[in-house]
Amino acid sequence: MSEHLRTALELAASRIPALPLRAGKVPFGNCRRCADSACGGRPNMKNAGPCACPGPCHGWAAATTDPDVINSGPWRRAWLRASAVAYHPGGAGLTVVDLDNADAITWARKNLPATRTVPTSRGEHWLYLGRMQSANAVRPGVDIKSTMAYARWLGFGTGTMAALPDAVRALAVSRPSPARPAPQAVTVPALAGGEECPHRTPVFLERGIAMAEQRITEATSGVHSTVYRTFLAVLSTHGRCGCLTEAHVTRLFAAAQSKGETPRHCLDAWTNARTTLGL
User: Fold this and answer.
1) Contact 138/172 with Cβ under 8 angstroms?
2) Strands 135-139 and 84-87
3) Which of 45, 216, 264, 268 could form a disulfide linkage to 255, CB 3.0–4.6 angstroms apart?
């Protein structure tokens, strides 16, 4: 049994979802069947992955506490190639404040309550009990890793773990938005419509579009798959009655482009979602 596999099984026994990392400290890429999230799966923190794929696909969403999955054939082969072990903090009910240098550590000691710490190659991980939205670069040298993110496993650390403080939650809320290029106009194929509208009020549609925009813009990883799944959700609810207008779709595409998606990526994701639903 490899050292990484042994570590992953120990984490699973402690109810900490584990996954393998390949060279470069990044998750294994999706298999051919799941490439570009073609499987249409939805990441689910309770399962070994967002679809029926037996391998460690889909990044953080593959993290699992199931020893049978961790020790299965496809995973054992991944462990043999792995360079490190990672875990999904949010799946374990934890938040990691990743302090990347000495200045960040000094700031944390002055502004955050003491908690369990884990040394890293360049700084420290501060572990808090509680989960929240993950966010990168909330201040110089500081990332927050919790839900929909992974962190490298470097041991249990030292010290007593404190409850997640409001000071950490506030970092994700107040972080400045990076500058993005202006969204480009995209011609969107019209929907046929024709079915009876079940929405009763425009407020329902507006709320759905606003929630979809928020889901895309708050994505901290897996932007491609988040955009596709969001388009799929919007179309499954609003795609058959003709309520969606070009203005609505333009808003969704603009949200995707604000996260770095190209107009071509947006159009492909929209077309793939329509095809999946038979629209």
Assistant:
1) yes
2) unpaired
3) 216
